[in-house]
Design brief:
The chain is globular. A hairpin with a 2-residue loop joins strand 16 and strand 17. The protein contains 10 helices and 18 strands. Helices cover about 30% and strands about 25% of the residues. It has 4 domains: about 45 residues, no CATH class; about 70 residues; about 120 residues, Beta Barrel (putative membrane protein from Corynebacterium diphtheriae fold); about 130 residues, PH-domain like (Roll). The protein has about 425 residues and is α+β, with helices and mostly antiparallel strands. Helix 4 runs antiparallel to helix 5 and helix 8 packs antiparallel against helix 10. A 6-stranded antiparallel sheet has the order 9-8-5-6-7-10. A 5-stranded antiparallel sheet has the order 11-12-13-14-15, sandwiched between helices.
Length: about 425
Amino acid sequence: MAIEFTCRCGARFRVPEVMAGKTALCQACKQVVVVPQAAVIPQPMPTRPVAPVSNNPYVPPSAAFQPGQPPGYRAPAPPFAPSQPDPDMLKELATHRELSDSSASNPGMLRISNLKYLLSFPKWPIIWLSLLILSFVLLCFVTWFGILPVLFFGLANLGYWYIIRTKFVAGCVNPGMVVSLDPPLVAVMTDLSKGMIERDWTYVRVLPQPLQSMTGGPPFLGQQLATVAYYDRSEDTDPHWEGFAPTVINCVSYSEPDIARVFGTLDKNDWQQLSAGLKQIPQPVSEGLYKVELQPPLVSPISLTDVTAAVGRSLLHLPDKLCYLAANGIPGHILQASVAAIAPGLNSASVLAVVLANKDASGRQGMIIAADGVYYRLSDALQGKFRWPDIWGAGTSRRQFEILLTNRQRLRFDEAFSENGTPLEALLDGLAKRDF
């Protein structure tokens, strides 16, 4: 029995029943769609009169939803136009690009309010200011040598605020969505790619934000918010940044026209991708950085020749890094202990590589790369295996390695493979995307 359904763009499809619940790529609009359990043909929504909506895409929380309105209803935008960037910010952006080794594809160009930032994120501003005040007390009542800490913490305060203000001028704008009100959590999506290889490294970060005090009114679940982020540095040879630190712009500015302008730099595709990524986040949602995949899994087979070649290119024979390749000769005691503890009954001849956990040199904890797939064991609660066709993607960020499977299962190994997370990521993600 076949399933017939219609994409949101209007294209119609007929797929086998075995595809129910799986994802596919619409050939018409190139968006990821979920195949329904049965035939679904969207019915036209009942029309209802609504007031004219202005071209301003930003809708404050207080105006975006009212009790009794249907889900998804958006009230008319406020009667103000988005602001224009301050010309001085263009100079600051140019200076930042000259001094740094990267530049944002969509810079925030937002002038924040120091007071608003202080009220929203008081911890570090108060710490730096308190140290400056204590140094003044030391200077006035103890010794004139206090002039040194006064100068130091005075410059530290200026430097801190310079970094914060520059972040919102030169940092990258990313889409965010309210995913929890208690605690207040926002999920933000970005591509951490450096442009070294033609591959997206899409991540979603869930983090707390002071939403109750943001400009525009109280938040609601599913609310779209613009954020600005700096990216965490990584090794020059790594294909992507280690992570990112986004901040909701409503929490740092009182100016709704400025907020509207930044919000308007995000388009429909940004929000669609964020919605697709959120479906892959474990529930209930919690803080963390998560690798997500925006393209459906590939179904073409992976040959043993391809796997062997990819292992040889991605993994290095470095005993001090607890990584061993069969091509270079896996030590007998490591191979025997690993197979017995990680993959009992596995034919040793099919082992291509052994990657041990960071602090385990015995061979009893880690990962075995074999001809048919991957076997892993870090504890009795974290052990298992998956076949090569089951892998959808892999990623490493902030010393945490994770694997996504086609059944949407997520395997997270925390810091167990931080020493070899990057080569494992290159191997498994490359095989998942047939990029070897």
